[in-house]
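In full, the data:

***
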Amino acid sequence: MGAHVDQCFSVQCSTSCSGTGQSCGGSGVNGVCGCMPQPSTQTCQNGAKCGNVTNNCGQSVVCATCTPPQTCGGSGTPNVCGLGCTDSCTQGQKFCVSGGLATCTLGSNGCWAIGSPSACGIHQSCKGTPGSAMCACNSDPVCNGTGPMCSSGTQLATCNSDAQGCYYQASSTTCSVPVNGSATCNNGACGESCPMQSAPDLCNHTCLNLSSDASHCGGCTLKCPTGSLCKSGSCEVRIGFPNRFTGNEASPFGQGGDFISAFPITVSRMSTLVAFGYINSSTTANAIASFGLYSSVANAPGTLIASAINVGLNPGAQEPPAPAIVLAPGTYYFAVQNKGDSAEPTIYTDPSSQIDWWIGGLSRSSGLPASFS
């Protein structure tokens, strides 16, 4: 009976294997040095690697191709896709550059960087912190809205708004200066000021004193009659005959004590009585007289309107105050009564040579009568 015998052979490589990744029989052939390459997906780490990558056997394996603008090893790591630059800003950020406004922009190299600046509006400046900058309106020293505004005490500016909503001075005008006064600018309007007056008296751009100017008494172009004065804005007209009773001093009319004489006067326009008056040439001391104004009735003195009683006579001109009574245009009678034995005032004229001379028939020690007779 025979026996079957299995025989095993062990074949050794003749030399030591020295190649990268090689081992005896590594390629699957006994006795031969070799290396079994790993799958390319393993070598390329499932797409994480790019370019030529050496595998376990020292062989060059072509891995993924990078998508531009990335390059293989661009970020500094070999065989890894990356950019060859570094972001200097983030999307949406804005910066002031050379007076203009620049925006963070994605460059052709794939990195975010500050772009070229755009100029701000003509009435704007670039302001703000880096990354949050903006074009903002300049603050105008005069304009905070549109329309006229005072740029100084005498300058009027016109303020406008531009396309960016910024206010600016479009023009400026110097306020006109009145004659004898000065220009003003207040609350967006030119004005005219007159000195030393609480309320400006302006007539056609001229400063006047309407309280004393006879050509503009109480108002522009309100002219007082020739020879009259303007006082406190009203024409002061002296009605009477300052020379009528002179020229016959050698033979004065000698009326008795408490005698009354009346003379007609004409009021040509609506007026207010403010005073009686006389011109005294006498040297008699302590002379006293009373003065009155009577209405006209049938061309004769009528009813007493106003009076100044027992006035001490002074040398020269005197104007005793009278009640402020409004007089309509017309004829009135001015009456004078001398008081006591002094028989002053003495009227230097002849009654027979004067028209409309009225004399009280009796001495009236009680004073001026309410009705002349």
Remarks:
- The CA atoms of residues 271 and 323 lie 13 Å apart.
